[in-house]
């Protein structure tokens, strides 16, 4: 069995960037579904640092195109600082979300750490949505639809410069897998910035194995893989506990293959698990499936493989 870096679980209980209430309950649902115990059973040393604290969700409308910007900044700044602490301590941070706006804080921290270490960064964005919106193209103003754009320098300065550097990453460092819901203007931005997207049509035509081989092409021993796993990546028939369900998603076996191929690289250095909404789930089914898939990220497979 592969030896794993010790892991730190960071709970971020907020739905401040989302359009539905409930993602703030995600961290506890993942714990109740047995995530710490599942990792420990795989020989991983697990430290649960508990939940970060931040402002309550005011549940107000957009101001200048953004909903809850001050609160989103506060939560992401706290997460960025907490993630950096764990990375610098030689640990693998797992962010238990919370909505996907939190990817700004976690990936800003990872990008900074990679620059400090002289490492390459590759972000695998597992999601039904590209999250490349800006305030100009989204009527809702929900920031959980904007994190990739913010990380690439498009968005309010409070988020694009969260870590002092802008942009935190370039679009060329991102590979998006499982995408099947993109707003019209967002499509233009993705094309303009040349984001590498393996949407469900590509996966249907070429297969998940080919998609993952392409997404992992060029990674080497000096690459830090950051996996940002939005549970709406999965088809809602197997993962109902999300606020933004999109039919036609990744099935169970495809999802396992994704996780197993990432595990095979041995390069995953950080992980987000986001958008789990227990209020919309059935008997914590989606959280249990997420735990099952994370086990595969840490090397669980049907057979012993070289």
From TrEMBL:
<keyword id="KW-0464">Manganese</keyword>
<feature type="binding site">
    <location>
        <position position="100"/>
    </location>
    <ligand>
        <name>Mn(2+) 1</name>
    </ligand>
</feature>
<dbReference type="InterPro" id="IPR006035">
    <property type="entry name" value="Ureohydrolase"/>
</dbReference>
<comment type="similarity">
    <text>Belongs to the arginase family.</text>
</comment>
<keyword id="KW-0479">Metal-binding</keyword>
<dbReference type="GO" id="GO:0000050">
    <property type="term" value="P:urea cycle"/>
</dbReference>
<feature type="binding site">
    <location>
        <position position="127"/>
    </location>
    <ligand>
        <name>Mn(2+) 1</name>
    </ligand>
</feature>
<dbReference type="GO" id="GO:0030145">
    <property type="term" value="F:manganese ion binding"/>
</dbReference>
<feature type="binding site">
    <location>
        <position position="230"/>
    </location>
    <ligand>
        <name>Mn(2+) 1</name>
    </ligand>
</feature>
<dbReference type="InterPro" id="IPR020855">
    <property type="entry name" value="Ureohydrolase_Mn_BS"/>
</dbReference>
<keyword id="KW-0378">Hydrolase</keyword>
<dbReference type="InterPro" id="IPR014033">
    <property type="entry name" value="Arginase"/>
</dbReference>
<dbReference type="GO" id="GO:0005737">
    <property type="term" value="C:cytoplasm"/>
</dbReference>
<feature type="binding site">
    <location>
        <position position="129"/>
    </location>
    <ligand>
        <name>Mn(2+) 1</name>
    </ligand>
</feature>
<comment type="pathway">
    <text>Nitrogen metabolism; urea cycle; L-ornithine and urea from L-arginine: step 1/1.</text>
</comment>
<dbReference type="GO" id="GO:0006525">
    <property type="term" value="P:arginine metabolic process"/>
</dbReference>
<dbReference type="GO" id="GO:0004053">
    <property type="term" value="F:arginase activity"/>
</dbReference>
<feature type="binding site">
    <location>
        <position position="232"/>
    </location>
    <ligand>
        <name>Mn(2+) 2</name>
    </ligand>
</feature>
<dbReference type="Pfam" id="PF00491">
    <property type="entry name" value="Arginase"/>
</dbReference>
<feature type="binding site">
    <location>
        <position position="131"/>
    </location>
    <ligand>
        <name>Mn(2+) 1</name>
    </ligand>
</feature>
<protein>
    <recommendedName>
        <fullName>Arginase</fullName>
        <ecNumber>3.5.3.1</ecNumber>
    </recommendedName>
</protein>
<keyword id="KW-0056">Arginine metabolism</keyword>
<dbReference type="InterPro" id="IPR023696">
    <property type="entry name" value="Ureohydrolase_dom_sf"/>
</dbReference>
